[in-house]
Design a protein that fits this description.
The chain is α/β, with parallel strands linked by helices. The chain is 45% helix and 12% strand. The protein has 21 helices and 17 strands. Strands 2-1-5-4-3-6-7 form a 7-stranded mixed sheet. It has a 4-stranded antiparallel sheet with strand order 15-16-12-17. The radius of gyration is 28 Å and the shape is globular.
């Protein structure tokens, strides 16, 4: 039976619906584990409202009309619930003063079972796949402010919860089969933590952010001047006046300026204009992997790294890459971050903060993904690493501090543990990056005295850090060439050096790749048994991604389980602290500095969790405590 609880004089035409104003839910349902779902007027828990609350014990369902019936806090705070996409419901309940206890999330469980397969985990798709039950979601679109509830709304809401018990039991069979209990439990424990993080939001120092915008606008003008200057002086291109700016006496190349230029004459963002320019000048055009003309950043860098054309043309192309990067920052990290939603920005009118959303298990390697710009949620993981940007994120509570902590050398330590590579195991606490980078550059420069360290040729060390991580994740010579800024031939030499040093690790990664091709999936590690499936995937993609996932996926397992452990400690010790964001291997918390032991507590939890998953080795962390998000 479906009970519709309302104080309105509602008359149902369906024999499946019984209308009542009984307020005691216990009189209508039995048990301690209930399926739960809500229908709302929109996606924002701060501005939108709950219209209907649906609850089921697996046999019957009740639908509560929240416009006439107040929610029973005692019931919701004490019972355990099964939900599909629990974080969405949790945030709406939390904003109404209720903290629900999530026993199971059928969406997260399904995502972990099918991870990487490309299958969808919506309730409609999951019910069809697991229970062969059809679900029509068209009614959902009619829920909005001012909607008049009809039988179709009630029946739709009931169907969303009536099958969740059976769906949970079916999923648990697969989870037991694949030994995924630990990882699914972690995902469920993460839900309220990440929900509270999303509700808490992020405060932006608007002056600092605007300074970033102004600095990039000025930089973009200067780069435009330089590009114009190169075309005029190096290629004898005749450009008409730009009214956007007047060239100063000297350009950044130290050469006298030529003239004033007009903005609508040449657009460096236009591939069409750039292709025509190259044809007019009889210059080769960069090509994509699909062999199409392209002035995309990747195509340009790949072209320049081949070092097959003139220095002047390469100079122009490199400057064009700078132009694109600067323009992207203005477009992606500009006014929207300090503009209210009703003006087209991200700033919430209720909280005066920006907010993100975390997708827990939608990536193939199980890393958290961030952002949903369609719903006004920023992608915090794409914020530039430069300190000028990070300094913009501050606490809005007087006296509070920001803790930024990230795992040190996690990728190589994980590889050392999983592969048993003796070189890595013996040196993972040393400066491996400097050591192997020195070997590479001695080969490339043919200088036996060449040194790379944290103080000598440190730019080469930083470049190599990117290279070793790219190599771990299956990058090919073109990518390595781009990261080292060398030719593809030199990149192949660099790869051989790495493989000769990390012999066991290289053999292990090849074994992982071959096993994934044979099995159609890869398991990240033997502790969590997290896995990713490969369905209709070419072998070369499986090879590259399998090598990636066992490292990045294990790292994701460590971070997720550590967040849960840290949250338990925060509650246990009653520490005033709040997770603000998670960016790959980095955690950022706001905390009251009276709890001065908090940074070390977080560090120890990360070490313990890494040792728990890796077994024979731990990953240390570096942290900084500032008034802002640190680099």
């Amino acid at each position: 039976m479906i009970y519709y609880i309302t104080k309105d004089d509602y008359i149902s035409k369906s024999d499946q619906i019984k209308v009542t104003n009984v307020l005691n839910i216990y009189d209508l349902l039995s048990g301690d584990l209930f399926a739960l779902d809500i229908e709302t007027t929109g996606f924002c828990p701060f501005k939108d409202k709950i219209l209907l609350v649906s609850i089921s014990d697996g046999k019957d369902a009740i639908i509560i009309d929240t416009s006439t019936i107040a929610l029973n806090h005692d019931f919701f705070n004490k019972k355990d619930f099964i939900l599909h996409n629990a974080k969405f419901d949790y945030k709406f309940f939390a904003n109404n003063g209720i903290k629900i206890n999530i026993a199971w999330d059928t969406m997260l469980a399904e995502q972990r079972i099918i991870q990487g397969s490309g299958h969808k985990a919506s309730l409609k798709d999951t019910l069809a796949r697991r229970l062969k039950i059809g679900l029509n979601k068209e009614v959902r679109e009619s829920f909005k402010k001012g909607v008049i509830i009809e039988d179709r709304h009630i029946l739709y809401s009931a169907k969303d919860v009536l099958h969740l018990h059976n769906l949970m039991h079916e999923q648990q069979n697969y989870i037991q089969k694949f030994n995924l209990q630990r990882t699914v439990n972690t995902e469920i424990a993460l839900v309220p933590i990440l929900a509270d993080t999303e509700l808490f939001g992020l405060t932006i120092d608007e002056k600092q952010w605007r300074d970033n915008i102004d600095r990039n606008k000025l930089k973009l003008k200067e780069i435009t001047k330089e590009l114009d200057f190169i075309l005029i002086n190096d290629f004898s291109v005749k450009l008409k006046e730009r009214k956007q700016y007047l060239l100063t006496t000297f350009s950044l190349f130290g050469l006298p300026s030529v003239q004033e230029y007009e903005s609508d004459i040449f657009n460096y963002n236009s591939t069409k204009q750039l292709v025509q320019l190259a044809k007019d000048l009889k210059l080769p055009i960069p090509r994509t992997n699909e062999d199409k003309d392209s002035f995309s950043t990747k195509a340009i860098i790949d072209f320049v790294n081949k070092k097959v054309y003139s220095a002047n043309y390469n100079k122009f192309l490199r400057k064009l890459v700078e132009y694109r990067a600067c323009g992207k920052r203005l477009n992606s990290f500009g006014e929207k971050f300090i503009t209210y939603e009703y003006e087209g920005g991200y700033k919430n009118t209720v909280t005066n903060k920006v907010h993100t959303t975390f997708r827990q298990s939608t990536t193939r390697n199980n890393r958290l993904a961030s952002g949903n710009t369609k719903q006004g949620h920023i992608n915090i993981q794409q914020i530039p690493r430069e300190l000028e940007y990070r300094k913009s994120f501050i606490s809005d509570r007087t006296g509070n501090k920001i803790l930024t902590i990230d795992l040190s050398g996690a990728e190589l330590i994980i590889l050392a543990s999983l592969s048993g590579d003796k070189y890595l195991l013996g040196n993972c606490k040393k400066d491996i990056h400097s050591e192997i980078a020195t070997m590479i550059w001695k080969k490339l420069t043919k200088d036996s005295d060449y040194i790379v360290s944290k103080t000598i040729n440190k730019d080469k060390r930083q470049a190599f850090k990117n290279v070793i991580y790219a190599w771990l994740y299956g990058a090919q010579s073109n990518t390595i060439a781009r990261l080292l800024d060398v030719s593809v031939t030199d990149a192949e030499i660099a790869i051989k050096v790495i493989e000769n040093v990390l012999v066991t690790a290289s053999t292990f990664l090849r074994h992982v790749a071959n096993q994934a091709i044979d099995n159609g999936y890869t398991i990240f590690n033997k502790v969590t048994n997290s896995r990713s499936w490969f369905v209709n995937t070419p072998d070369h993609e499986i090879r590259r991604n399998a090598m990636n996932y066992i490292i990045s996926g294990t790292q994701a397992d460590i971070i997720k389980e550590a967040i849960v452990k840290i949250d338990n400690k925060i509650k246990e010790k009653n520490i005033e602290a709040q997770l603000l964001m998670q960016v790959h291997d980095e955690l950022v918390y706001e905390f009251n500095p009276e709890f001065n032991e908090f940074p070390e507590l977080v560090r120890e939890q990360l070490k313990e969790m890494s040792k728990d998953i890796l077994g024979n080795i731990e990953i240390d962390s570096e942290y900084h405590v500032e008034n802002y998000w640190f680099k």
